[in-house]
Amino acid sequence: MSRYLICALISLVLATTAVAEQPGLTFFGWSDQHVKTNGDVNHLLAAIDGMNELPGSSFPTRIGGEVAKPAFVFGCGDVTEWPTHAAVRGYSKVISERLKFPSYDVMGNHDDGGKAPSETMKKWLIERHGGLTYAFDKGGVRFIGLFSQFDANANNPAQPLTKKALGELRKRLAKTPAGTPVVVATHLCFDAMTNRDELVETIGDANVILILGGHYHKATVHRHKGRNFVQLPSPRDQDEFTVLRITKDRLTAIPYDHVKKEWTSDRGKILDMRIRGPVEEEKR
Q1: Residue 274: exposed, middle, or buried by beta-carbon count in 10 A (0-12, 13-18, 19+)?
Q2: Do residues 126 and 132 lie in contact, with contact meaning Cβ atoms separated by under 8 Å?
Q3: CB of 242 within 8 A of CB of 30?
Q4: Cβ atoms of 133 and 145 closer than 8 Å
Q5: CA-CA distance, 45 to 77, in Å (whole number)?
Q6: For residue range 178-224, what is the model confidence (pLDDT) as tens digits?
Q7: 148 close to 161: Cβ distance less than 8 angstroms
Q8: CA neighbours within 13 Å on the CB side: how many for 121?
Q9: Which residue, 76, 74, 67, is CA-closest to 26?
Q10: What is the CATH number of domain 24-274?
């Protein structure tokens, strides 16, 4: 066999492997948009345009492949600085008219009005998603948006997930077919969640491959008692959003700087793990 034929065969194998490793599911993540009370969303536009432009770009070599069109964008709360009608309308308009992809959100502590409670954001989320805690399936993965009531009177950004929230999560996991990969998204991030051990105990043997959070505005990743935690960045304070990819055996999460047009090289922000992913990936 000639050297050229051997090289051609090797190239074919590598190309086939690269195709096999392409994602069954890609989505983008951000959090803490903090739309101003007057409805001003200008600080979100650069991040949204960056999301719209990124599909088709190459991932860093160590991850490989190209960024697929995201199935959706997920936000982990504090959509508003405070939940005025103008703020909710402003956000609703920009994600429906400028963002090119579907989006999902959960409630943050600012979204319920804090010490001046408001139902405005709650009603908007319930209308969009059917409840403050809700679930949907995409690409063979179940996503659970988990609402946990924040105690504004505690005067502490670090708090536990409530018993009610954990109970709701337990019920939803019990109804999830065994082995199904699950992503849980809530507002509190790893560093802010004071009862994360209790969360891990609630998860039990369920195949929860990822726990998403926001609240502290910067992208970070943690691994705790066998569970992966990813904190999503805020477009108010950061120039990043996170790109997440799930395949049958691999989970990656890496922030992209939409101003510098480059991927982060900070390993404290990057997750790249083997997982038990979806058995049969959804056709895109």
Answers
A1: exposed
A2: yes
A3: yes
A4: yes
A5: 18
A6: 999 999 999 999 999 999 999 999 999 999 999 999 999 999 999 99
A7: yes
A8: 29
A9: 67
A10: 3.60.21.10
